[in-house]
DNA sequence: TATGAATGAGTGTTCATTCAT
DNA sequence: AATGAATGAACACTCATTCAT
């Protein structure tokens, strides 16, 4: 169960590939093992069970992403700028790894309730990040004073998520990154920020 | 396969109850048959297969809902008013049938990709309705001229969906209907509409 | 799970054959199903799980045997005669169904502790029968007054069981039934009964 | 594979502990290795395979026991006295090492047929010892002239074995040693010996 | 129409054994 | 001699669907 050995990430990356290409329900442990170039049994030296592979996958990938964004945001002053950075980073992250995008946006959502609850725990870190930006925006008078933080967070996350899911389901037929600007404008307007062109 | 016989809706309603109470992965055909008071084999006189039950369920329930909203919206003049009506109706619909809410917001999303694609077909009718309101809002100068219709639609649907999902996952612990006003304000602001209090 | 349908006994008899011929650890459910002439899944319409097949097997076969002996014994007057009847019946039963003998004497004993505990429950009926004969023998002054009933029962059962197991492990090379007389004499002597030839 | 190195007995003793505490089916090689304080692979420097550990265990422990009894019996004159010594020694041996008792009476019997045949080879030394006492008893006119030696041996071994097994399965709740006298009386009576109190 | 007994394909996980170091 | 990471074969059980009645 040593999570710092090379085979740990090797198996997780193999799981991403197999799930993305074959789909969640066709991602048998034996297929993941084959893709990772290890024996079936070796999987269980690094993960408790199949579910543990999927949770670990989400934690590693989403966890890294959240840390990445936190770093990028730290350099920005206003909530509006921070939100732009978050939107851009999110779209870049998704567009940069199509396999991972398919896995997190489509395939992993068909998992059972237990797994989804654990995935939600990981997501909470991301939602808290959004909350912090919204609260800051209100305090700095960038956003409406009477803005409901939870609703604003649900708008920001729901909109980005829906945008990304639509894009993934379209087989990435159009340019996702160019949507960052317009998307950002909608979200800050929704938060009560008055953009110039309005 | 006659869809107008009483047992057709009887089976669909049984499916809603079973899925809501037991969860998607515990909703075996035999359980649905038992709940509907028919034999397992009878199911296959009305539906091609299990997937067909779920698609039909979504079509019947969501189809009714779309028709309902279309009627309500027809009586409104402005896009802003129409959007408020849509948000209110959506929240009322969800809050009014907790079984159906659990099924559509949580359980049916665990279905495989094929089923989800077919569910999306049904949703398209709803998304078109939103598109129509957005286009009208732009033409009537209520919304920004340069508003991206697809993005606006994704914001509106994504935000409502995320709000409802969060509420369902919280076991409906708070009042959903009272969120309609604030939710609506965020969405129209996002579309470039200047509300009074801003 | 209806235990009075023909397939119930059909599956149990198939299990006896497969276990006797292939051994306990090679008696996969699929082999039993094939031998019974039914599909794998059909097994589970009649038994909860594999363990349930084995317990039921023991209950049906041993249960019948105990009833059989009880009937035969009822016709006898003295404890000595009853014990002879029990020994003869036991040896006849075993010698009459070599498959069943292998299963109960050798194969089923390799089962796990849970299963063995349940098998012991069934055996208790047999042990109680022995106890009754011993108690009667003491009361009727056929056996020693100070005979320890539990020890006598362990001698009677242990001796018969060891005799039968040795015979089964020898591949039934010699005549088992002819041992009934000498075996019986030893046991009643052990209980304090004075046989003529002594 | 040198059986006189310290680790040989170290591993056997570890096997006794692990099997007694966890049960036969939970006694994985890795657990035995851990208990013995050696690496998994080291086991295979001293034993051909897992079965070889168990056979060796039985040989070492039972072999010692047989030698012990042979010595004790040598000092006795009559077959009746020798049998008493055997019964007492057997019960003392079992009662003195509860781990070993569990292993030999309960756990090792769940092994497969091959292993049981090899265990029987070890037991033959014990059975021959019993045979010798019985033959001597007949020759010395202590036992019946027409006593069947094999049956007598099966009675003696089967009775002791059943008594011990029942005691072990009862979690050693009562005093086993005090049964030696009554047990012995039953056995010699069974062999045709007339005890005083009869 | 309606029934429900029967079907049979499909998979996560364990653990004795090996072998490069 | 000793290690322990890696191997890979093996199997009980579920449930959507069928079809004889």
From TrEMBL, chains A, B, C, D:
<dbReference type="Pfam" id="PF00440">
    <property type="entry name" value="TetR_N"/>
</dbReference>
<dbReference type="Pfam" id="PF08359">
    <property type="entry name" value="TetR_C_4"/>
</dbReference>
<feature type="domain" description="HTH tetR-type">
    <location>
        <begin position="5"/>
        <end position="65"/>
    </location>
</feature>
<dbReference type="InterPro" id="IPR013570">
    <property type="entry name" value="Tscrpt_reg_YsiA_C"/>
</dbReference>
<dbReference type="InterPro" id="IPR036271">
    <property type="entry name" value="Tet_transcr_reg_TetR-rel_C_sf"/>
</dbReference>
<dbReference type="InterPro" id="IPR009057">
    <property type="entry name" value="Homeodomain-like_sf"/>
</dbReference>
<feature type="DNA-binding region" description="H-T-H motif">
    <location>
        <begin position="28"/>
        <end position="47"/>
    </location>
</feature>
<protein>
    <submittedName>
        <fullName>TetR/AcrR family transcriptional regulator</fullName>
    </submittedName>
</protein>
<keyword id="KW-0238">DNA-binding</keyword>
<dbReference type="InterPro" id="IPR001647">
    <property type="entry name" value="HTH_TetR"/>
</dbReference>
<dbReference type="InterPro" id="IPR050109">
    <property type="entry name" value="HTH-type_TetR-like_transc_reg"/>
</dbReference>
């Amino acid at each position: 169960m040593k999570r710092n050995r090379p085979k740990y990430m090797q198996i997780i990356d193999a799981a991403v590939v197999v799930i993305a290409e074959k789909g969640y329900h066709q991602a048998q442990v034996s297929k993941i093992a084959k893709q990772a170039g290890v024996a079936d049994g070796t999987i269980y030296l690094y993960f408790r069970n199949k579910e543990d592979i999927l949770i670990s996958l989400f934690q590693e990938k989403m966890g890294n992403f959240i840390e990445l964004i936190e770093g990028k945001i730290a350099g920005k002053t206003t909530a509006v700028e921070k939100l732009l950075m978050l939107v851009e980073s999110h779209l870049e992250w998704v567009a940069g790894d199509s396999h991972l995008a398919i896995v997190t946006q489509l395939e992993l959502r068909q998992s059972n309730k237990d797994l989804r609850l654990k995935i939600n725990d990981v997501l909470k870190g991301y939602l808290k990040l959004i909350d912090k930006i919204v609260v800051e925006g209100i305090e700095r008078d960038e956003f409406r004073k009477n803005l409901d933080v939870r609703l604003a967070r649900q708008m920001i996350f729901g909109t980005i998520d829906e945008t990304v899911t639509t894009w993934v389901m379209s087989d990435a037929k159009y340019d996702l990154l160019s949507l960052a600007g317009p998307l950002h404008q909608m979200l800050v307007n929704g938060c009560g920020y008055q953009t110039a062109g309005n």
